[in-house]
Design goal:
heterodimer, A: about 425 residues, alpha/beta, Rossmann fold, six-stranded mixed beta sheet, four-stranded parallel beta sheet, 15 helices, globular, B: about 260 residues, TIM Barrel, 12 helices
């Protein structure tokens, strides 16, 4: 496939100077805090990935899937009516919402599913919060003929009932997790319990740039395509690089993917927006980098929300996809080095931006992505007239219409057949 | 010679395996747990593993998850762990602590080791810490005279068994199967093979855990291992009360005293 990638969509996988050390450390962060029983599988994955990331066959296969299946490159769209509320800044949207399955998640999933086939494993497990990663994983498994089991917190299965149905339609088994806070963190716990039991036949297709090495670097690399494309599109369409790049950060996969396109451009500010929930000062939030402390969760050392005894705190966010008390280790490193900055956006600010983009541009964003949009409005006021902001619109909001309808009170009970409404 | 080495030597002299019982601190309450640990040791246990209840116990099955949850909802704090260990040590019993890494990391690795040693604890079992990431703990355990019990698994390579055994002291913890904690009907046949492989790399005593719940299991494991570790079955007994813990400990203690003949 000599022509693959000539449109510049070739997935940038080979190592760069931003890679962690060989045991997965980004400075003091990352590593492998995992049971010995899983170390052999992580080693196997590391070896497979290290070979794949420089293997032209793998890169071409991945690139072909991104182009012919996921629909890459995704568009870069200016949002002028939305930007009227941004203090004179111009705002550009990297349209990951237009990818197949509706979010950036498909990039990583296609890469890991290809790797699963190369490792000769037939069964895939994954966690999901909002359901975007679960849907993407179920999609890739259907495409490649892999068995698929998705763990999803019971609270999230109710918040995102439509995505549960989508996953089942795609042939996946969805297992509601009823332990702990019954959200994303608990879904990961349950997936890890499955993995340690079935590791010989099963790949754990982790959905964010967190967890034990090699997941943070591998997931990042599968999403680097977002930043590489966006940088080229900015230069082609706008003739300059942005002053700032805004992305939402839960585990941090879409953010790390777009940040890496600009990480060697020191004049481009990289700004991650975390879920501020009801406000960081209320304690009901998921702003790990803004308010967390160093800890170990799900295989890596990173910033964490935890209590004075080192028990993991429950995160709170209107967005199921950001409702996580940890964050990927590379973000902890970028925070410490100052290369990226992280701020919190409340549920209310995110929902205002959600509605504003819908009504000014005709694009309904995912609530996750609405955190980045709200952040861009703030950045615009700070940077002022003529500044240019690139926002990673990481997903579309169809899945969030039910949440939004409740938030904005959009459904008149009198118009409804069932006066009890939905229990969702 | 460490207190754990003395214990394993004494068991060997009696031609039996050591019985090691796990119970979480704080379950069902802090004071109840102290009493149950004393009962376990009085009824034939040689060593207790005191579990530190954790919010996200990824290596544990439903029984220990539920007990951890209950302890935390009951207000368990890390300081209660140290008073629990102290109550065992004061009564002349041997205790190690089994804990996920984050609470230790958060407490401060050296401070945790200092306070555990001061309470009379003998060491730490660390199910989600491998020696590769244990630099702080290696230093702290040396400084405070604690044993480091790392785990090996059926999936461990020869190289990793060797590395893990070199970093360990007191004993080596062999997980009998690939999976989370929980009582099983049969002892996995991977356990014997793993212990045989580990023997080639270390002279440390080797104890086997995961899935053991009856006297017959204990006898079977005692046929090839130096210690028999029982967790979930004791937690289930703890839910039923002192008498159940006493009965289970007695049954298991009898089991470790009649090691099954090893196949030639």
């Amino acid at each position: 496939m000599a022509h693959a990638g000539q449109r510049g969509t070739a997935a940038p996988l080979p190592p760069t100077r931003h890679d962690p050390d060989e045991r997965g450390h980004f400075g003091p962060w990352g590593g492998r805090f995992m049971p010995e029983a899983l170390i052999a599988a992580l080693d196997e994955l590391s070896v497979a990935y290290d070979k794949a990331r420089i293997d032209p066959d793998f890169i071409n296969s991945f690139d072909r899937l991104l182009r012919d299946y996921a629909g890459r490159p995704s568009l870069l769209t200016e949002a002028p009516r939305f930007a009227e509320h941004a203090g004179g800044a111009r705002i550009f949207l990297k349209r990951e919402d237009l990818n197949h399955t509706g979010s950036h998640k498909i990039n990583n999933v296609l890469g890991q599913a290809l790797l699963t086939k190369r490792m000769g494993k037939q069964r895939v497990i994954a966690e999901t919060g909002a359901g975007q990663h679960g849907v993407a994983t179920a999609t890739a498994c259907a495409l490649m003929g892999l068995d698929c089991v998705i763990y999803m917190g019971e609270v999230d299965t109710r918040r995102q009932a439509l995505n549960v149905a989508r996953m089942r339609l795609l042939g996946a088994e969805v297992i509601p997790v009823k332990t702990g806070s019954r959200t994303l963190k608990d879904a990961i716990n349950e997936a890890l319990r499955d993995w340690v039991t079935n590791v010989a036949t099963t790949h754990y297709l982790l959905g964010t740039a967190a967890g034990a090495h090699p997941f943070p670097v591998m997931v990042r690399d599968f999403h680097r395509v977002i930043g590489i494309e966006a940088r080229r599109q900015m230069l082609e369409q706008v003739g300059r690089l942005p002053d700032a790049v805004a992305a939402c950060v839960g585990g941090g996969s879409n953010a790390i993917g777009i940040f890496h396109g600009f990480i060697d451009d020191p004049d481009v500010r990289l700004v991650g927006f975390e879920p501020g929930g009801e406000g960081v000062d209320t304690g009901r939030h998921g702003a790990t980098l803004s308010a967390g402390t160093a800890g170990v969760l799900h295989g890596a050392r990173s910033y964490l929300l935890q209590d004075p005894d080192g028990q993991i705190s429950e995160a709170h966010s209107i967005s199921a996809g950001l409702d996580y008390p940890g964050v990927g280790p590379e973000h902890s490193w970028l925070k410490d080095t100052g290369r990226a900055e992280y701020r919190a956006i409340t549920d209310a600010e995110a929902m205002d931006a959600f509605k504003l983009l819908s009504q000014t541009e005709g694009i309904i964003p995912a609530i996750e992505s609405a955190h980045a949009l709200a952040g861009a409005l703030r950045l615009g006021h700070e940077l002022g007239e003529g500044s240019v902001i690139l926002v990673n619109l990481s997903g579309r909001g169809d899945k969030d219409v039910d949440t939004a309808a409740k938030w904005f009170d959009l459904i008149d009970p009198a118009e409804h057949d069932s006066p009890d409404g939905r229990d969702g | 010679m460490s207190s754990l080495a003395t214990m394993f030597d004494a068991c060997r002299a009696e031609d039996r395996a050591a019985l090691i019982g796990y119970l979480p601190a704080g379950y069902p309450t802090v004071e109840d747990a102290k009493r149950l640990l004393a009962v376990l040791l009085d009824s034939g246990g040689d060593l207790v593993e005191v579990g530190l209840p954790f919010s996200d116990p990824v290596m544990d099955g439903p029984t220990i998850q539920a007990a951890s949850d209950r302890a935390l909802r009951g207000g368990f704090r890390v300081r209660d762990l140290f008073t629990t260990v102290e109550s065992v040590a004061r009564a002349g019993g041997r205790a190690v602590v089994m804990t996920y890494w984050n609470p230790v990391h958060h407490y401060g690795v050296d401070a945790f080791a200092r306070d555990l040693a001061a309470a009379g604890g003998l060491g730490l079992i660390t199910p989600d810490l491998v020696p590769d990431e244990a630099e702080d703990w290696l230093a702290a355990s040396e400084a405070h005279g604690l044993d480091r019990i790392f785990l090996v698994a059926p999936s461990s390579t020869e190289e990793r068994i060797a590395l893990t055994a070199r970093a360990s002291s007191g004993f080596l913890y062999a997980t009998s199967l690939m999976g989370v904690t929980g009582a099983r009907d049969v002892v996995s046949n991977a356990a014997g093979a793993l212990v045989r492989r580990a023997r080639a790399h270390t002279t440390l005593p080797i104890a086997v855990g995961l899935g053991v719940r009856s006297g017959d299991h204990a006898a079977e494991v005692a046929g090839f291992a130096d210690g028999v570790i029982v967790g979930s079955a004791f937690v289930t007994a703890a839910r039923d009360g002192e008498a159940a813990v006493r009965a289970l400990a007695a049954e298991l203690a009898a089991g470790v005293r009649r090691p099954a003949a090893q196949p030639a």
